[in-house]
Amino acid sequence: MKPFLDAREFPDGTDVMTDVCVIGAGAAGITIARDLVGSGLDVLLVESGGIDPDAETQGLAGGVSVGQPYYELAATRLRYFGGSTNHWAGWCAPLGSLDFAFRPWVPASGWPLSPEELQPYFARAQETNELASFEYDPEAWASGRYPVQEIGTDVESVIWQFSPPTRYGPEYREALEQAANVQVVLHANVVSLDAAPGADHVHTATLSTLLGSSLLVRARTFVLACGGIENARLLLLSDGVAPAGLGNEHDLVGRYFMEHAHARAATCVFAEPTKDLSLYTERASRNAFEWPRLLSRVENRLRRTLDVLPPVVPVRGGLRLSDVAQRREGVLNGAAIMHAIDPDDAMTADVQRSISVSAHPYDDPVNAYDLVLQLEQAPNPDSRVTLDDEVDALGLRRTRLGLRLGELDTHTLVETTRALARAFGTSGTGSIRFQPWVLEDPSAWHDTYWGSHHMGTTLMSDDPRSGVVDADCRVHGVDNLYIAGSSVFPTGGFVNPTLTLVALAHRLADHLRARGSST
Amino acid sequence: MNRRRFLTYALSSTAGAIAFGTWRWLDDGGSQRVGFVPDDERAFEARVERLEAIVGDEDRAMVLALAPDLESAIAIGRYALPLDPSYQHEDAVLERLRATLLDPWHRASSDLGAFVAAYQDIVARDHRDGRVVVLDGWVLAATRVDVCALASLVHERVGARLAAS
Q1: Are the beta carbons of A209 and A497 closer than 8 angstroms?
Q2: Number of separate domains in chain B
Q3: Under 8 Å CB-to-CB from A365, ≥6 apart: which residues?
Q4: A133 falls in which pLDDT band (50, 70, 90)?
Q5: What residue in B sits closest to A265 (Cα-Cα)?
Q6: Distance in angstroms (rounded) separating the CA atoms of residues B52 and B58
Q7: Residue A119 parent element (H or E)
Q8: Closest CA to A48 of A187, A185, A210, A184
Q9: d(CA A377, CA B144)
Q10: Distance of alpha carbon A99 from alpha carbon A85, whole angstroms
């Protein structure tokens, strides 16, 4: 077993050679490095931070926000070994088939990949994230205890599985330490990718430490895996040969930044107030016994080790409009997540009792639920990452994030809520209350928070005029530069991005392996 | 207790428990569906009669009997009254309910169960066709709001006896 290297201990100007240089040790970077163990390729995994967080390195993730009010950028991602998996919540679900398709009502939609092409990689991503089998049919998770709700033909249930959540740093550190062909270097910040004249080949990556020393990494292949914001920033900063930044011939790098708005859009009550909604309101453990989380993890570890039974994980349901209803309403994808609330107004109780099918409505408890819509964001070229004039501790221009929502996003918020209300009413399920801001001023997105899901900025497309990377995640026009992570998503669906980005990372690793063995 | 007596006792207890559980299950199932089973239909008929004695005519009583909880219907109706002048006149609201609900039912059937089912169908159709009223953000079927408005207007006229019914 070899320890990880610390870039601060290298003499200034050290030159390092490797086959594959993976930049960023988060979910995507660690997945690729793990998959390349035993590949015969020398792999260098470069991480900005250390094993533990430190404020100075984390400060490099700062920036300014100029669009939709957004969080302090340094709080939305983590710069140390394991990346943002050090604070993720573990929600996992795959994109649906409609997410991959071109939708005439969603400009710039459509992936150059089919869901079938990604299917085997989703199955691998399940295991990487310590999930159960690749099963997202709600009926498969339902039981007498956790029934699936039928709310007319326009509304479908969806399922999230929960990763423990897997902290990639602690979880996969040992495997990387034991790998003969993988070396991890910590405290190494890539400050530029240096291209040959013509900007069609990257020959070195320049790394700096916060102590002021530099390293050069020469590699046959480079993989950027720094997250949806930093991937774009590094390409824009790499302007030595291409003044607009590497891979930015068509002014696409940084554009189409997408997030998942979580809008508290509505409240609902049910005609059967005592109906069991636990599949939708809690992380329902599927373990045979209601173990505490640690014991569940031990049980799953045993199941995986013995390879007899699949792991059992907590799941939670949500409600989404069917593909047909989305097409009819011209809306983006989205799902409503239910949270039980304690209603403090008489009207909620009155509405529940007025729609009740109970024999004694007055005796029933008033059970109300907030509906938080987790929404796909429309691909929008004006929603973008650019470079600010202010510089960070390494002298690099900081991120300037302009997250922008448009008319299609607002239309989706209102019409999805309206369609849910219609489905509840038509099916006799219950009644929905719009939050006042959704009726009065939806474009203000008042009661909305964000998932810290950074997507887009280096879109995948077969056409270099509409995307930064091709279907293999290779930067158009640059023969040895690849991008891993959710920055390549052409559209982001409504589901949390980790499962999909890890599936893509597995796929990219296979591609690099095949490419490495053929050269 | 010898072995035979014990077995007899255990078996009869088990059978009794199963029978009781089944009865409870059936009973619960029935009570969840107002107007769909004969027992509930009789209860609905009795409710109409009680209401008729208070409000003075059968049509009003039939409509008000549709509200699972009259006190809540009255409260919701109060939200609706200021929305539109047509909600402020008892006869106008009743006339609308006759046109949408009572007259078609009279023409088709005299079955009270069918009346409740017809109301539920109209409410579903209202939602499907966008005939909804938004009260304090709540999206309610126009016909349901008419029922609530009528309850509120009748309550203003006859007083607390209505809510108590």
Answers
A1: no
A2: 2
A3: A273, A274
A4: confident
A5: B137
A6: 6
A7: helix A115-128
A8: A187
A9: 36
A10: 24
Looking at A387, A418, A444, the residue that finishes a domain is A444
Contacts of residue B139 in chain A, CB cutoff 8 Å? Answer: 418, 421-422, 425, 431-434
Residue A226 lies in a domain: yes
Q: Which residues pair with A17 in a beta bridge?
A: A218
A153, A267, A354, A433: which to substitute to probe chain B, counting the most B Cβ within 10 Å? Answer: A354
Let me know how long chain A is: 519
Tell me the residue range of the domain where B19 lies: 1-32
CB contact under 8 A, B76 and A355: no
| Tens-digit pLDDT profile for residues B25-38 | 333 333 333 333 44
Report residue A434 CA to chain centroid gap. 28
B52 plus B23 within the same structural domain: no
Which tens digits make up the pLDDT trace of A195-254?
999 999 999 999 999 999 999 999 999 999 999 999 999 999 999 999 999 999 999 999
Report which secondary-structure segment, H or E, holds A116.
helix A115-128
Task: Find the DSSP H helices in chain B.
Answer: 3-31, 38-55, 58-64, 70-80, 90-97, 103-108, 112-129, 142-158, 160-164
Contact between chains at B148 and A435 (C-beta distance less than 8 A): no
Residue A426 φ then ψ, to 5°: -65, -40
Give contacts of A359 with chain B, Cβ < 8 Å: 31-32, 34, 40
Across the A:B interface, residue pairs with CB atoms under 8 Å apart total: 94
Matching residue, tokens 């879109």? A459
- Number of Cα atoms under 13 Å in the Cβ half of residue A244: 9
Which of A486, A479, A157, A502 lies closest to A338 in space, CA to CA?
Answer: A157
Q: Out of B67, B134, B136, whose CB is closest to A354? A: B67
Q: In DSSP terms, which residues pair with A192 in a beta bridge?
A: A206
The total number of structural domains in chain A stands at: 2
Reference A231, options A512, A509, A501; nearest CA is: A501
Is residue B100 located within the same domain as residue B147? yes
- Residue A348 C-alpha, separation from nearest chain B C-alpha, in angstroms: 9
Confidence at residue A75, expressed as pLDDT on a 0 to 100 scale: 95
Q: Which residues of B touch A356 (CB under 8 A)?
A: 68-69
Q: What are phi and psi of A315, to 5 degrees?
A: -135, 165
- What's the one-letter identity of residue A499? L
Q: Which chain B residues have a beta carbon less than 8 Å from that of A355?
A: 68, 144
In which order are the strands placed within the sheet that holds A397-402? A63-65, A397-402, A384-391
CB B138 to CB A426 under 8 A?
A: no
Q: Helix B70-80 vs helix B142-158: angle between axes, to the nearest 10 degrees?
A: 100
State whether ipTM is beyond 0.90.
Answer: no
pTM: 0.90
Residue A323, domain extent: 130-164+261-375+406-444
